[in-house]
Structures are given as C-alpha cells and as structure tokens.
Structure of tRNA-uridine aminocarboxypropyltransferase 1:
Amino acid sequence: MYYCATCFLAVGAPADVQVPHIRLPLKVDIVFQDKIKKSTAPIGKTVAPEDIQIIPFPFMEEQAPTYDAKKAVVVYPSHDAAIISELEDLDELETLIFIDTPWQKAPSILNDPKISHLRCVKLANPPLESKFWRYHSSGKGCISTIEAVQLMLDEYLAAKPSSKNDVDVSQLLFFFQLVHDHIIHTHTRPDRQLDRAPMSEAEKERQRLLRSQKEKGKKRKLENKLAFKKKLAADLESGVIDGWPAKKCFNCEARTHEARECPELCRYCKVEVHFNGTCPKKGQRQNTVKITKAL
C-alpha cells in the first residue's frame, strides 16, 4: 500500500485496512518549491485533503493566495518568531502556512509580498531528531514538513482547549510511518545493516560528512584552477611566456592542436583517427571482466 504524490490518493490499500480521512482544526497551506516526490507534503494532503493545500512557488498570478495578517501565520523559526500559545489573537487564527523548500530558498518565499506581511511562529519544543529518511546539513532540530504540521497542530490544540480536541492529528503521519517502517524492515534483512538505514542519526551524519568532503573537494579544485590562471597571467605579464596557452585537445590533451585536428587514435574506439566528438563508441562503456586476486 502506498500513496500517489501527484493525485494524493491511497494506492493498493487492502480491504481490511482503513486509510485515515480526517478534518483539521486549522487550514494548512504548504508553499512548495522542491521535487514533489522528495516532499512529505503529499502525505498530509492524502489524509486530510479538505484542509491541506499544496501551493507551488513562485505563485501564479491567477492562483496567488491572499492572507489576512490576523488570520494566518507562517510556521518558520525566524529570529522574531513567537510561540503559538503566546498569540493574543489565537481565537482568530484560521490558517497555518508552512514552507516546504530547501533552506537556501526559504528567504525568497518569506520576502514575497504575499507572505512578507505575516507573523512567524515556531515550535515550542522541536524534537532534536527526525524520523525522516532524508538527511540534511543543518544540524539537529530540523524535521520534515509533515512532522512539523502534526507537532504545530498539537501545540495549537493544547493552547486552545475549547477547539476540536477530538481530532487525532497524529493520523497525519499514517503514510509517513508506513514508509518509515518499510525502510526499517528492509534494513533488517541479513544482507543489510540496520545502522545504515537512512533515518538513523549515524547514517545521516555519515552522509553529511561525505557531502562536506565533496564540497571541500569542489572548492579546492576551483581554488587550484584560479591559482593556475593567476600564475599564467603573471607569467604573461612578466614575459616568461609569449602568449596565453591554447586549450587542451579533448582527445589527447595536447595544446598544439584542437580535437578536430588530433592526429592520435580516437579515445573512444581506439581504432581510427577521427573527431572523437562524433565517434559512435562515445558514451558506451566496455563491459570487461574485472580480474581480482580471488579469481
């Protein structure tokens, strides 16, 4: 059993399984700018279709939302964000707005004229760890969108005892928990490692380290390239070299000619002397048997 991330319907539900269909005490708008299959927003939309709306960003002119500052707040941990229980006009609140986007793109949404006039609220006690199976590089205290929706609605219900307390907002995590348990189950097989499950903090930390090393490598490569160009410019100015070196031939990496005029065998077919850019063998990998000591 799963859900469709584009039509927001349960798929393949057994006859004896009841998929939750709930109403929420507040409207939830999720301003979305990411790949839909990576997001947890469709999980909530599938369970509470009447109250959760996914709004693509940038806003389309004919579909741009309009919010009243007294009736809507943005759930975002800005420096001036308040706790929802501290709002004096809590009784007038009707809509919670969540931002579902990479952290680098969030400021562009917050500064949009449709959003910028609204107040921000944040979770009073955000969990240090998330059960989400995607890692991030922002450290502890960051959770997925659907987890934030559920926790914020819980805080709203706790701050407003007269509201619809019969609503079990934890059912928003029905498909989230289903996917989580399925991933855990696959990692309990003998050929898998449970501590390498993507939602474990150890694996997330390992992924952060790999990402950090990759970014450092890119930065170092760029620095070396700029240093090389700076040295060439200095040599050219001092007269050490007569002119700026020609580009390397993509086929043999010599600087005396271009790839179209290369006299060496094609790097792809290794049979003819021709322009390697039009070689039919380009993009094809030779499946050779790797010889190891075990063989």
Q: What stands out?
A: Strands lie at 2-3, 10-11, 27-32, 52-56, 72-75, 82-83, 95-100, 119-122. The chain has a mean pLDDT of 83. The CA atoms of residues 53 and 218 lie 39 Å apart.
